[in-house]
Amino acid sequence: MPADAAMAMDERVKTEPFLARLMKRPELGAIGGVILVTIFFLATADSSMFTLSGIMNFLTPAAQLGILGIAAAMLMIGGEFDLSIGSMVAFAGMIFGVLTVNLGLPLILSIPATFVFAALVGAVNGLIVIRSGLPSFIVTLAGLFILRGASLVGLKLFTGGSTQLRGVREAVEGDMLTPLFSGDAFGFFFTWLADIGLIEKFRSGTPKVPGIPVEILWFVLVALVATYVLLRTARGNWIFAAGGDRNAASNSGVPVDKVKIALFMATACAAALVAIITVIDSGSTDARRGFMKEFEAIITAVIGGCLLTGGYGSAIGAFFGAIIFGMVTIGLTYTSFDQDWFQVFLGGMLLIAVLFNNAIRKRVTGER
Amino acid sequence: MPADAAMAMDERVKTEPFLARLMKRPELGAIGGVILVTIFFLATADSSMFTLSGIMNFLTPAAQLGILGIAAAMLMIGGEFDLSIGSMVAFAGMIFGVLTVNLGLPLILSIPATFVFAALVGAVNGLIVIRSGLPSFIVTLAGLFILRGASLVGLKLFTGGSTQLRGVREAVEGDMLTPLFSGDAFGFFFTWLADIGLIEKFRSGTPKVPGIPVEILWFVLVALVATYVLLRTARGNWIFAAGGDRNAASNSGVPVDKVKIALFMATACAAALVAIITVIDSGSTDARRGFMKEFEAIITAVIGGCLLTGGYGSAIGAFFGAIIFGMVTIGLTYTSFDQDWFQVFLGGMLLIAVLFNNAIRKRVTGER
Amino acid sequence: ADIIVVAHGQANDPFWSVVKNGAQEAAEQTGANVDFRSPETFDMVQMSQMIDAAVNQEPDGLVVSIPDADALSPSIKRAVEAGIPVISMNSGADVAHELGAKLHVGQSEYDAGVAAGQKLAEMGGTKGICVNQEVGNVSLDQRCEGFAEGFGGPVQVIPTMNDPAEVQAKVRAALDSDEDVDTVLGLGASLVGEPAVAAVEAMGLTGEVLVASFDLSAGFLQDVADGKAAFAIDQQQFLQGYLPVVFLAMNAEYGLIPGGDVPSGPNLVTQDMAAQVIDLSAQGIR
Amino acid sequence: MTADTTFHHGDPATGVPIVEMRNIEKHFGNVIALAGVSFDIRPGECHCLLGDNGAGKSTFIKTMSGVHKPTKGEILFEGRPMSFASPRDAMEAGIATVFQDLAMIPLMSVTRNFFMGREPKKGKGLFARMDLGAANEICVEEMRKMGINLRGPDQAVGTLSGGERQTVAIARAVYFGAKVLILDEPTSALGVRQTSNVLATIDRVRKQGVGVVFISHNVRHALAVGDRFTVLNRGKTLGTATRGEITPEALQDLMAGGQELAQLEGSLEGTI
Amino acid sequence: MTADTTFHHGDPATGVPIVEMRNIEKHFGNVIALAGVSFDIRPGECHCLLGDNGAGKSTFIKTMSGVHKPTKGEILFEGRPMSFASPRDAMEAGIATVFQDLAMIPLMSVTRNFFMGREPKKGKGLFARMDLGAANEICVEEMRKMGINLRGPDQAVGTLSGGERQTVAIARAVYFGAKVLILDEPTSALGVRQTSNVLATIDRVRKQGVGVVFISHNVRHALAVGDRFTVLNRGKTLGTATRGEITPEALQDLMAGGQELAQLEGSLEGTI
Ligand SMILES: Nc1ncnc2c1ncn2[C@@H]1O[C@H](COP(=O)(O)OP(=O)(O)OP(=O)(O)O)[C@@H](O)[C@H]1O
Ligand SMILES: Nc1ncnc2c1ncn2[C@@H]1O[C@H](COP(=O)(O)OP(=O)(O)OP(=O)(O)O)[C@@H](O)[C@H]1O
Ligand SMILES: [Mg+2]
Ligand SMILES: [Mg+2]
């Protein structure tokens, strides 16, 4: 590109090492965190943590959290919060459970219906935020309580008094779509790998890892799509603009309101996706599902380099943020530290991980 | 003032009704919310809610939350968050409990020591935030986990295995300072009121309300001091400036770093105050004290009109925010609604209260 | 022997810290290496992942609580498939054997609720409230359901958040607004039981309103001993931590294992016994 | 002071006004920013909007470009009554604006700011994506035309100098400009070279039949390119003058709000 | 173009420089904003800092006022080496600055912005509080001196017009100014009347012995008040000229970065 050639000759620009250029991307700090945490656990944890099955094991919660975290990151880049996603997981799980178990709908109907419900709730959140001009924090906080309460009331209503709805696994058994949302993918491949002795087996002879849990595939897919949208499409540009400066964006012709409402809908749908995956996986749903997940999602996004004030961040960063969070929470169970110290460690590791990647970034890019 | 006189003659200014001028203050919206919630409960709740004892009853939790909320509001105006205050309540409670029970110190020593501990932790939070340039959200989140975990470990250590440390009430009995932090104030006055029949008595003859719970007095005191500092002192100006635009404030000569560190210390001390009051009141402390209080405090501040982005808000707003929150959480119990709906109701009332005061403010001040 | 315990309650929950103390005491006595783990909130999805993580380490024995059989069964089955002996404790008596657990140590939350309800009705209670500090936590919800069943009279569930001042205010509010309420059942002694007693006391209703609570705390036991509270429902959860570890250690060393379930409760601690257990409770054993 | 510049000024434009604003009022709460201002802009003319600080110029052009809704008054676009719901509507109708605060996002790159809201696309349907390569090239090229050599199109706007930033906003508006180009103090932060480029650009687009609304505090700049001059004062219009009808001195007096320039007049006249 | 204005220019100031900057370099990551600039300011003189957009003027004065730490180079304050840790330090040493981005908080009132960091107090010890009454009065009065009639001192700065906002920043710096007053394009958004007020103010404080650093793109403004002229270009200094040594035309050429003004020269000369 001629433009680049001209730049290269500018005497006001020092040549910049490749590494420094890389570290300027918000997500790369998070990779540093992943490396640090990995080194820590390699040194302290049971060796089974980094076997294939161990890795799948900590990636599974990371994946569920990550799907929410990436959605939260996009919304945060767009300048808003959604505190209702945790409750949305419970609510969408309840809707999905009732549709499949009580109404006996097949997945091909119940899944789209769940997404529609979720998207509607997201749109309502967005509309209230836009119309009232209130901060999304307070509006979706109301959503947090309302949806959580509604899940409780709904579950009690549909189960005749229990806060737990069971029997989803039986209801979806044999459904064409089930393998898309539950279980492990590429099972045949892993069986074959186990047969030729490349991966470990249990004493009983089944491979220790029966396949890649589908949520991990969803997680990767969501991260890729989100990154593509953010960095390569016009909508992505609008998201950054809407979060960076609402007025400036709107004055430059960005349809800020539409962008924000779409983001709220996407976030709610991400929660619904996690709800569907976990409900099919566990075969049940209860009123506490997704509890506190809204905060974990925000944490994930922030570890991944998003600014709480909006306009800056990345989906890939949230991807790695979720892996850090998943590794730390599950990883401690592989170590011999006393569970009482769990929270001290979790906090300490989070702090060290973010301080570390922050320090690295500053050093490499030469910022003050 | 001559300046005002000149203003009044400017033809570019419409005369502004007194009400409109009032409603421009961020806290006055929150008063609207209080009125709305009061009207709602007057219509739906048992009449005992608004007897003197009923009012004291919902003001007590509101007061404890409010002390935290006002501190959180000041910090938020200064542009930062502290997610560790909930855990700080548990941690400070543990420190205080150990000092009074295990070491047997009198309150005159143990209370200042607890505050010093808390302020130190606050200063560390602040220093890390300032030095690293990381968002306070993520730094104090680590604090949330670390302090919560440390409280558990500490309690188990000092009690020999239990998560509850008791015996505080016995330890502080008779201490000169106890009445400042526990029990009811102006007891003689209320007894006299009861004797002349102005307030209700129990069948046993003691007045139904033995006095004003001291936490309510602390609550009012904290609100007054915070409001004075924010609106009438130079430090208050600095707080608004630091939160409004860090760079601009620093370029104008505001010592932004010092202001922020002082705010973190003040917030931690507010948590310690709540810890001391509740520990003496209940006579014990446990590892779950203050759970989720950081979020309730932030909610309180936001209901009270603080902006999450900093630089705007008021302490009086948080004061009323805490009262709204306290009334709504306790109030439902006085109504005949099904308690399963509690969270739906809580969320709905919060939303309606903020929408309402927002609408009023816009209408009165003529904003678009 | 390496034994891993995965429970659904948190390490800082007074009830579960006693379970953990039991497991640790057993570890010391048998020389086994015990790891006690639990998710940060009542989270069945995360709990199943923690069981998976435990299975990956192929311990010599696994102890789990089963508040949601549907959610946890694949993980537990995977453990059994992997040849790890599993003992369930606290909750899940009904499904333990079906899932392949060797045995169950504990008490059904529901049954304990029924027992408490019957006792309170017997003591003259007619209209009750069940104060639940964690609505949606299935094992706590079951306590209230059992209470309603055993009590017979009308029962209202009062949901609260995790704060003693709020619990106290809510109990007061409930008693204030409905004078017929004469029974309060709390689902946790320190978080609900103690503030409930304080509320009743502040209203001058001590003796007129029955207060009982699940689990023990030194403060609440003192109230029981002083006659301000009716009784505490004790599951002897120390045993739920202690026994499975001992059993699994024996199993690992000698291949020994008891032939049947061990009911650890319910055990109602009333005024006459309360004083004796206060000290044990303060040490985290009861 | 020389008022006659060497720009060619055509005959006064006589066509139908592209935008006509009638008796616009705008109140913010109890503040009256505009108290009835009328104004129109015809194709091919440069209409200067002048006035003291706080006279209401920015508020006025913001109502023209869809940012504010007028409290009272009428807007005609090509003869038809029109009410823009958002700046995007105004843009689509063909009004490009450089706002005084520039409307840029400091954290985003120069290119992304340049094309914000009107990204060049490649690919179709689901695969339509931003053509970043082309965007970068256009952006660097347009900036060069204005006299700024960017270090790189991916530099964040927040790290640009004041003048560089202003140039991005102008280049953007000119690049996308359609029927009306509104410039709110576009040269305030610009250097000598960049200013002359901007004035030349105004001249060029006017010749192409675009109507230009030009706000400035610099009498020389206004006289260099303006065909008509409307002066605002304290939210009201003091009237419109056509080029040649008014002396620079009279214009400067009007711009200062009619108040005498006090004792300074003598010492500074001709230097502002 | 008339270069000789009627301001009185004293003899070239000869005292010890208040601030002397030697070979200042400043890098931002891989961007070299300043590549060795030397500069000094003496009591009672107005030293103009000129240069093209992006030349590094703002970066330079920011290192002078404690916002940036220089990557290399030395700062002497009244002859002693000095390193300001923060703008507050520089302020306390007696350097008052009007930044190009004004350093104001949009959500705060005019008065609170005016006194930000240096609030007037009344009462003592624990009861020391802001004297809001006095503050409001001073603020309105200082603004009036600059030619702005505020509607009210409690209006939020974010709702002021561009020029009103700039005037607040200037009035503030002048009010608190001590030994050195740095003005980064102070008149860019100002009206005719306000500009002449600011230039007169510069003249007034200079006569009081204050050293003034004045950045401008307007040759006329610079020549009207400047005693010495330093021109920056692409992060380097092109040299310093004393008043009278240099013709306005040469200065204008230097300011444009030495590049020829192309074909525009002819058409615009004298109008910028
Ligand atoms: N949102 C608002 N709220 C209240 N007052 C406002 C608002 N916006 C503008 N004003 C007031 O309206 C008046 C006109 O402002 P405007 O920005 O239009 O002036 P201007 O003519 O562009 O001045 P300048 O030349 O300084 O840019 C100002 O006095 C300003 O204080
Ligand atoms: N924080 C920063 N990071 C990277 N580059 C920067 C930063 N600050 C300034 N620059 C670059 O340094 C150069 C000099 O900027 P500066 O603001 O000092 O210019 P200036 O002379 O004040 O120009 P103007 O007259 O337009 O205000 C510019 O090219 C700018 O892009
Ligand atoms: Mg303007
Ligand atoms: Mg500059």
TrEMBL record, chains A, B:
Membrane topology according to the record:
Multi-pass membrane protein
Q: Per its record, what are the GO molecular function terms? A: transmembrane transporter activity
Matching InterPro entries: ABC_transp_permease
Where found in the cell?
A: Cell membrane
Q: Which GO terms describe its cellular component?
A: plasma membrane
PANTHER family tied to this protein? ABC TRANSPORTER PERMEASE PROTEIN YPHD-RELATED-RELATED, XYLOSE TRANSPORT SYSTEM PERMEASE PROTEIN XYLH
Q: What does this protein do?
A: Part of the binding-protein-dependent transport system for D-xylose. Probably responsible for the translocation of the substrate across the membrane.
Q: What is this protein called?
A: Xylose transport system permease protein XylH
Originating species: Mangrovicoccus algicola
From TrEMBL, chains D, E:
- Natural source organism: Mangrovicoccus algicola
Q: Which residues cross the membrane?
A: none
* PROSITE patterns referenced in this protein's UniProt entry, alphabetically: ABC_TRANSPORTER_2
Q: Which SUPFAM superfamilies match?
A: P-loop containing nucleoside triphosphate hydrolases
Name of the protein in its database record: Sugar ABC transporter ATP-binding protein
Name the InterPro entries on file: AAA+_ATPase, ABC_carbohydrate_import_ATPase, ABC_transporter-like_ATP-bd, P-loop_NTPase, RLI1
Keyword set, alphabetical order: ATP-binding, Nucleotide-binding
Give all residue intervals belonging to the ABC transporter domain: 19-259
Q: Does the keyword Zinc apply?
A: no
The UniProt record lists the keyword ATP-binding: yes
Example GO molecular function: ATP binding
Xref: CDD domains: ABC_Carb_Monos_I
